Each structure stands twice: as structure tokens, then as C-alpha cells.
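User: My collaborator sent over this chain with a note saying "see what the structure looks like." That's all I know about it. Can you take a look?
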Amino acid sequence: MKLLSIAIPSYNSEGYLAGCIESLLPGGEDVEILVIDDGSRDNTAAIADEYAAKYPTIVKAVHKENGGHGSAVNAGIDHATGLYFKVVDSDDWVKKEAYLKILDVLRELAGGARSLDMLISNFVYEKEGEKRKKVMHYRHILPESRLFGWEDVKRFHKGHYILMHSVIFRTKLLRDCGIRLPEHTFYVDNLYVFEPLMHVKNMYYLDENFYRYYIGREDQSVNETVMISRIDQQIRVNKLMIDFYVDNKLKIMKTKRLHQYMRNYLEIITTVSSVLLIRSETEENLEKKKELWQYMKQKDRMLFSWMRRGIMGSAMNLPGKGGRKISVDGYKICQKIFKFN
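Assistant: Without extra context I'll predict from the sequence alone. Here is the result:
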């Protein structure tokens, strides 16, 4: 069994896939690199096969029909033989020094009396054209360099969350919790770092700038124009998160800090959905915003009431064109105050 399986969801990634794989090779034989070719139409498959042939004990090429990012992550979980599991997107990379430190920690904790469920580290926004890189860290929120539970977690600020780039999960935990991300849907990474949390007992935070998250391509899924064009997929993920929270609410509420975190994370996702629907400036999307909030109300009136009364919910539901302008302006102010991404 390998120590760590790293899945690289790859679709038409010929321009940057090699760089991603190269950054992961220093992990050596303890690491399994799964290149998930998601039905690419360029040379991605050939690049995956080339690395698999060159490093047969480290790199595996998995070829599948196109199913989207979530489908590729699912395939990674299915094929993983490692004790732990990490997703690295094909246009991102990792920092060698931090990578080796993370592997040292995983080796140290593997087979211990308490199973490590989730390791958290920092990630860096590698934004095109910006010299100063923003680091997402968790100092003063999570205990450093030791195992801890939810009771040891301090309150997260709004806009400060554990994202896919931050986490390494225990592979068996992902399988046992039965997570299956929707196919042909963007923004499923929000489900990936939401649904497993109620199964996470033991965590470890390493204050290292490990993951390098590239931002800058015009076709990137996090580009605002692209997000508006795919708003139905954002809404689908948002509703699935509402469903999961409501269906598991009693279990989640047993752990105070977990409940606070998951509810706040759901709040920011709903705020993002709402502001994108407002910014699209179409009557159709304004109706979709109304329907999203109504969906939440029908699912859980208490959740709706809490969210609607909060600063985010109030700002997202101001009436009229003037109210919508205030909503967007308010969101921008909140971005600056709470350091949204």
C-alpha cells in the first residue's frame, strides 16, 4: 500500500499537466500519482501514458469517458491504493519543501493509536500578473503540528474556509462516507470539503505553503463571467449542500464547532450563488435566486431564518434595482472585510 494517492483530474491539459506531475514526483515511491484523463481531446492522454511508462511504480494513467471534474475525482478515489488521498488540479502544482514535510507527517501518523482523518495545510493563490501572492493559512484557528478534534478548533471568520486545495483525507474515510460527486457539474469541490466533515474526528494542521493554486486563465471555472454562464451548476451544488445539511442536521449539531463551520460554509456558498444571480441582471436569474431561497425555506425553516437574518442574507435580498445594487456593493465590501477569494 502506498502512503499517499494523488489524483490529477485532467481534461485537455496538455499545456500544463507535465508541470503538475513533475512537482509531485519528488514524493518518490511513497506516492501514487493517478492521472485521470477525463476524455481529453488533446495530447493529455499521451502525456499521462508517457509518464506512466517512465515511472511505472509511481504514475498510473486512468482513461475514462468525459464526466467532468467530480467524475474524475470519483475515479481517483476508486483507483487509489494509498492510505491518504489528495486532489491536485492539472494546472496547479506543489512546493517541494512543504510536500516532503507533509509526507514526513503522514509517515509519522500512519498506524498510530489515533487515525488521522484530515490533514490541512496552506495554499497560495498564484494569480497571473500579481507579484505579491496571497496565502490562505489557518493560524490562530487550528492548533499547529499536533492531532486535534473539532473541540479544539477556534471560530472561522466569514470567508475563511477549508478548501479542496487545503486538505488530504484518509482514503478509507472518503469511501466509508460514500461520497460521490455529481458528473458534468462544476463547483463540486464545495461538496468534497463539506460532506466528509461529519466523519472527521482527528485532524492535523501543518503551517506550510504546500499547494499552489493558479488563477488567471479566461476559461477557468472560477472566472466570474464563466460562473454566471454556469449558474445552474452552482445552484445544483448549493441545493445538494442544503439537502446534505438538512438530512444530517441532528448528527452535525452534536458537535458545536462542526455545526458552526458547516452552517457558515453553506451561508457563503448561498451568498456566492445569490450575488452571481444578481450580477447577471436577467429576470430569469432573479427568479432563480428567489427560488433558491424558497427551496431552503421549504427544506428547513430554521436554517432559512438564521441565514436570512444574517448580514449576508439581508444584503442578498434587498428589494428593487437599487436594492440589488446595494447587495452587490455590500458583497464587495464584505469581500474586503472578510477577505473572500
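A starting point for your reply to your collaborator: The mean pLDDT is 90.
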